[in-house]
Input
Amino acid sequence: MEDAVSVRDLVVDRGGRRVLHGISCAVPRGTVTGLLGPSGSGKTTLMRAVVGVQTVGGGTVHVLGEPAGSTGLRRRVGYLTQAPSVYADLTVRENARYFAVLQGRGRAEADRAVTDVGLAGAADQLVGTLSGGQRSRASLACALVGEPELVVLDEPTVGQDPVLRADLWARFHAMAAAGTTLLVSSHVMDEAARCDRLLLIREGRLVADDTPAAVRAATGVDDLEEAFLRLIRGGESEATS
Ligand SMILES: Nc1ncnc2c1ncn2[C@@H]1O[C@H](COP(=O)(O)OP(=O)(O)OP(=O)(O)O)[C@@H](O)[C@H]1O
Output
């Protein structure tokens, strides 16, 4: 089956500097694919290119069989940015219902999205009064409410406690099992182990595009954080030799 996302030779310049240097990768359908890498390595930029809001300097990005950013993809792709995108003067439920309407969905889907992110108990609370972690989950509910085929989540678990993080990852896998494709960025290496596939990016270049098991096998270490350090250091010594 065709991949949900197919990126070929993607080049992006931001602020007069090259931040993606010809990246090629794919996100298979129905998987949770993790996008990991150090701060500033280009994760958000790659996600922006996938959702079609990033000016690109070269290469191609195809999403669900169409060029990224096509009008036809508007309801088929959900995007959670790092900055919560919800209205502070509406309640959690009102926000979810508003975004549901934009996606052609109803109240039942809105309420389910709120429950799915663990906010049923705060559904009638104004978003402006929520904690940071709750606000980010309210934003996640709004990104998921339209049940998009591809979900792009920029650090969705930041600020969440371990129990909520585990719940959210279980939710992501349930969505993937039902056919949704998820591209999820994270700084937290223990989350890498929860992904079906991993894209490791460093300084705008792809260092690994594989399963966690293959990354472990290639590096000879079990701990993915250590494995990533080896891949990165291996890349550095190649670059200087
Ligand atoms: N609006 C912008 N203008 C100029 N440069 C930018 C802009 N946004 C990001 N950059 C630069 O592009 C590079 C990649 O940034 P990006 O946000 O994609 O990294 P990231 O891996 O998502 O980082 P983080 O994990 O800290 O969110 C960085 O060097 C950053 O400084």
